[in-house]
Design brief:
Chain B: InterPro entries: AAA+_ATPase, ABC_transporter-like_ATP-bd, ABC_transporter-like_CS, Metal_Ion_Import_ABC, P-loop_NTPase. Chain B: Pfam families: ABC_tran. Chain B: Keywords: ATP-binding, Nucleotide-binding, Transport. Chain B: This is Manganese transport system ATP-binding protein MntB. Chain B: GO terms for molecular function: ATP binding. The structure holds 2 protein chains of 2 kinds. Chain A is mainly α. Chain A folds into 2 domains: 279 residues, ABC transporter involved in vitamin B12 uptake, BtuC, CATH 1.10.3470; 35 residues. Helices cover 82% and strands 0% of the residues of chain A. Chain A contains 14 helices and no strands. By secondary structure, chain B is α/β, with parallel strands linked by helices. Chain B has a domain of 212 residues: P-loop containing nucleotide triphosphate hydrolases (Rossmann fold, 3-Layer(aba) Sandwich), CATH 3.40.50.300. Chain B contains 15 helices and 9 strands. The chains are: A mainly alpha, B alpha/beta. At the A-B interface, α8, α9 and α12 of A face α4 of B. Bound molecules: adenosine-5'-triphosphate and magnesium ion.
């Protein structure tokens, strides 16, 4: 394994892929922080699953495998899914979580059916579409990697430029609107950027698990800090670590898809955060509780001792 | 002079089909402290939001300083109801107050030293300077309320809308806030406050707006805050409202009248929102627990005794 790892690093193609995964991880972590804070985590997942039929239809229509085309297809079907969710919550008594569940499974179902159909058709095998389910970073072409890197970089830049706006819109959209901020526009932009982050990561991480790369880094980062700026940067780092680790391990072990490994890497960082983070972590909490209990017990027993001595001195009463 | 800070004309708002507010019209004179009163669900928050353009309206118009809200929004400050945000958001008190400056900064520009200084001043004005670096979820409810107030001050507006700034605030803080509001009024600013504690209305406000799905009455406290109007606002439910409107100086009277005062203040509080303020408790020297169930007790049971 060691030698294959070294071989990896030496291969310029793989260097590209690693670089792409790094940028993808940062971009997903950064945009995911806002998705998570706006309580739209499930939305990210629904959008990812909704991308599958878009990709399949794009392939069936054009008959070629092109990441630009697939992006277009998945963005369109992602938008249709968003409208579907809005329509369901608006015109029925169904709440958003249920609407998300419905849309997610329906779109994914359609996607799987279409994909099976493509697989059984003539040029199905060389389409490599099956890789989109769980991701295979190593199978990416240089142009795909390039696209992934550039788009991720764009996401990061937009988040940096509009940081103040995104922050206020995520915290208090009512106040932001009262202040004259274009809240609707900013919310649409955030949603669109979530779609883009999801879509651009699909080939590397896969439809099923790409949302985890969006949310898990953000959730983990939240444990370490109470500042949004720090959280966003930290989420970027965690995302980058997960992306690179996933790509490396799946590339060196034959045939292991990238998505699951990436998610496991992110999850292990999440576990570390949840257990060891200062203040919010489990250990810190247990320790704090134990210490307070001890202090209270001490002061109580002190009080009791004092009372006892008082009753002894004063007799009755 | 024909320019009013706020003119609401035939405002109608509906969330679903049924209108929550229908044809509300009133005008607010400049440099006054105005109380917006009405039972839970009367549409007070809805009116504020509609005026601020946060929710779509079905009909009517709103003019702020004779202009549309869009043209004059830099003159407007807003304190939302505290429950409207997630306080576990990763940010601290100073940062939230700085958000009040974003409107003046415009797109892309980041808050700098100047904004930080203004925000610190505003925090100091509400007595929260020591909490500047505190994560907002680690503030008490009253402290969170004061942070929101400081954020509105940072907006440096001439017309303020405040949705229940006294909710969950202790007597001392309420006094501090009200003197701050008086200070704003002295500077010629106009402040609209959604309020629930009827017993303090006469003391606090120059004008009142009584709402209950529609406008019941609006005008000077003296002329408008009457038993008849209150009964129209809150339904015939509260026989004891009279006591609130009659007592010219409530706190003196409460001390003298001894036995009856706890019941009176209880009724007044039930008329509004139970547990909204402990001001009455302190003034009456009677400790009424801030129990939320208070609101659910049938009012008849109280008035009969
Ligand atoms: N987002 C919403 N969707 C649907 N109905 C709503 C919404 N917000 C408020 N309502 C309804 O509109 C009415 C007025 O609500 P509003 O919040 O304005 O009351 P309020 O006077 O501020 O009450 P409170 O004293 O409890 O704050 C209520 O009947 C409420 O159920
Ligand atoms: Mg309200």
């Amino acid at each position: 394994m060691m030698s294959s790892l070294l071989g990896w690093f030496a291969d310029p193609n793989m260097q590209w892929i690693l670089m792409g995964s790094l940028l993808l991880g940062i971009g997903s972590g950064v945009i995911g922080s806002f998705t998570y804070l706006r309580k739209q985590s499930l939305m990210g997942d629904a959008l990812a699953h909704a991308a599958l039929p878009g990709i399949c239809i794009a392939f069936m229509l054009m008959g070629v495998k092109s990441i630009g085309l697939f992006m277009l297809g998945s963005i369109i079907s992602g938008m249709i899914a968003t409208f579907g969710i809005h329509a369901i919550t608006r015109y029925s008594r169904i709440k958003q979580d249920a609407a998300l569940g419905i849309i997610l499974s329906v779109f994914f179902g359609i996607g799987v059916v279409l994909m099976t159909k493509i697989q059984h058709s003539g040029n199905g095998n060389q389409s490599g579409l099956d890789k989109y389910m769980f991701g295979q970073a190593a199978s990416m072409m240089k142009s795909d990697v390039y696209m992934m890197g550039v788009v991720s970089l764009l996401l990061i830049i937009v988040c940096f430029i509009l940081f103040k706006e995104f922050k206020l819109v995520s915290f208090d959209p009512g106040f932001a609107r009262g202040m004259g901020m274009k809240v609707g526009l900013l919310e649409q932009l955030l949603l669109f950027m979530t779609v883009v982050a999801v879509v651009v990561g699909i080939q590397a991480v896969g439809v099923v698990l790409v949302a985890a790369l969006l949310i898990t880094p953000a959730v983990s980062a939240r444990y370490w800090t109470d500042s949004l700026g720090v959280m966003v940067v930290l989420a970027g780092f965690i995302g980058a670590f997960s992306g690179v680790t996933g790509t490396l391990i799946s590339g060196t072990l034959s045939n292991l898809p990238t998505g699951p490994v990436t998610v496991l890497a992110a999850t292990s960082l999440f576990l570390v955060s949840a257990i060891f983070a200062p203040n919010r972590g489990l250990v810190a909490k247990v320790w704090r509780r134990a210490r307070t209990r001890q202090q209270i017990q001490q002061s109580q027993s002190l009080e009791m001792a004092q009372q006892r001595s008082r009753t002894v001195e004063g007799g009755l009463d | 002079m024909g320019i009013y800070p706020l003119e609401v004309d035939n405002l109608t708002v509906a969330y679903q089909k049924k209108p929550v507010l229908s044809s509300v019209s009133f005008r607010i004179p400049s440099g006054k402290l105005i109380g917006v009163l009405g039972p839970n669900g009367a549409g007070k928050s809805t009116m504020l939001k509609a005026v601020l353009g946060l929710i779509p309206t079905v009909g009517g118009s709103v003019k702020i300083f004779g202009q549309s809200y869009k043209e004059s929004r830099k003159k407007v400050g807003y304190v939302p109801q505290r429950e409207s945000v997630d306080w576990d958001f990763p940010t601290n008190a100073l940062d939230v107050v700085m958000m009040g400056r974003y409107g003046h900064l415009g797109w892309f520009r980041r808050p700098g030293a100047k904004e930080r200084r203004i925000a610190m001043e505003c925090l100091a004005k509400v007595g929260m300077a020591d909490f500047a670096g505190r994560q907002i979820s680690q503030l008490s409810g009253g402290q969170q309320q004061r942070v929101f107030l400081a954020r509105a001050l940072a907006q440096n507006a001439t017309l303020y809308f405040m949705d229940e700034p006294f909710a969950g605030v202790d007597a001392t803080t309420e006094k501090a806030i009200i003197s701050l509001l008086h200070e704003l009024r002295e500077q010629g600013k106009t402040v609209l406050v959604v309020h629930h504690d009827l017993s303090t209305v006469k003391e606090y406000f120059d004008e009142v707006v009584l709402l209950n799905g529609k406008l019941v009455a609006a005008g000077s406290t003296e002329e408008t805050f009457t038993t008849a109007n209150l009964q129209k606002t809150y339904g015939g439910r509260i026989a004891m409202l009279q006591d609130v409107t009659n007592a010219s100086d409530r706190s003196d009277e409460a001390e003298v009248s001894g036995e009856s005062s706890p019941r009176r203040s209880k009724t007044a509080r039930r008329a509004g929102k139970a547990g909204k303020s402990s001001m009455t408790n302190a003034a009456d020297g009677v400790d009424i627990p801030d129990e939320a169930e208070g609101a659910d007790v049938p009012l008849g049971a109280v008035s009969r005794t």
